[in-house]
Amino acid sequence: MTSNFEIKLDKATSFNLRGSGGILVVGRSGSGKTNTTTYIMLRAMSQCDCGLYIVDAKRADMYSLYKFFRNGDKVVASDTNQIARLLRIINENMSNRYAHFQNGKWGQDFARYGYRPYLLVIDEVSAMLAEAGKNKTEIMRQLRQIILRGRQAGIFTLISGQRIDAAILDRDITLQLATRIVMGQADAETYRMVYPMVNDIKNLPLVPNEAGYGLIYSDGQIITAPTPFISPNMSNIAVPKVITRLENNYDTYKYIDESSYWQY
Asked: Does the residue 260 lie in any domain?
C-alpha cells in the first residue's frame, strides 16, 4: 500500500501512525487538546483513508459528528450501552480480520495484506469511565484487547483526557499507547504517567502554557525524548464538511473487501 501514515504536527515534528500502535493526548481545558485530537483524526482520514470510530460520553462536539458519517449512529457512541457494544464489535471485527489474513506473510501487518486502517477516538476517557457503571469492567476488558491487539490488525486507538493517572487507566494500557502528547503545562503526576522514561521531570522542555503548545514522545520512532511542538490551528476548519467530503471521496475498492464479515 502507498498510503502515507506519517502525521506531521508542525514543520519539524511528526509521528508514524502505523508504527505507534496508539496515541494518548492529555491536556487541561483550553490547552488545545481537542484541537490536536481533531487534527490527528482528520489527517488519518485524509492521508490513510482511515475508517473512524468515536466515543464521546460528554455528548459534545465529537458526538455531533455522527450526522456526517455513513452509519453514523453505529460508529459514534455516547451512552454506556452504546460504548460497550461498539467496543465489542470492534474486537469482533479485529478477530475476523486476523482470521482472514492470508497465509505466507508471517509477521506482516494490515498494510502488507491490503486492509483498511481504522482509528478509535475516545474523547475524555474519564467521562466515559465515570458513567460506565455496571459496564465498566466490560468496557475496560474490550478496550484493553483493542489496544493490545490492534497494531498489527490496523486498528489504532487515540485516547484523550484532561488528566490521566493509574486510577483512570491502568498502566499496562497507557504504556501500549506509544505516541504520547501533553498539551500545555501539566502537573508532575501527569508527566510521570505519560513520560515514565524521564528520570527527572524537571528536565522536560518547558513549553508556553498557551493553547496549541505541547510535548510529544513516540516510542520506537525518531522522537526519542519528549519534544516541543505547535499543533496546527483548526479554528477555521469546517470539520463536519471535511468529514462529509472525505466520506464521499473514499474509494471502497482501494482495500480488501471485508463486507462479508465486517459489522457496524
From this structure: no
- All three cell numbers of 6, joined, read 506519517
Considering the domain boundaries, does residue 255 fall inside one? no
pLDDT higher than 60, residue 2: no
pLDDT in tens, 47-62: 999 999 999 999 999 9
**pTM above threshold 0.85:** yes
Q: Which residues span the domain enclosing 83?
A: 6-249
Written as nine digits, the cell of 96 is 475476523
Contact 236, 225 (CB under 8 A): no
> In total, how many domains does the chain have?
1
The Cα diameter of the chain in Å comes to 53
In the chain, the amino acid numbered 47 is: Q
171: left (phi over 0), alpha (psi -120 to 50) or beta: alpha
d(CA 256, CA 6): 22
The grid coordinates listed for 145 are 484487547
Please measure the distance between the N-terminal and C-terminal CA atoms of the chain and give it in whole angstroms.
25
In a domain, 166, yes or no: yes
Answer whether 20's CB lies under 8 Å from 156's CB: yes
Q: At what angle do helices 33-48 and 239-249 cross, to 10 degrees?
A: 20
259 found inside a domain: no
**How many of the other CB atoms lie within 10 Å of CB of 136?**
15
Strand ranges (E), the chain: 6-10, 13-16, 22-26, 51-56, 76-77, 118-123, 155-161, 179-183, 213-218, 227-230
C-alpha to C-alpha distances, 64 to 72, 131, 243, nearest whole angstrom:
10, 19, 12
In contact, 140 and 172? CB cutoff 8 Å: no
What CATH number is associated with residue 100? 3.40.50.300
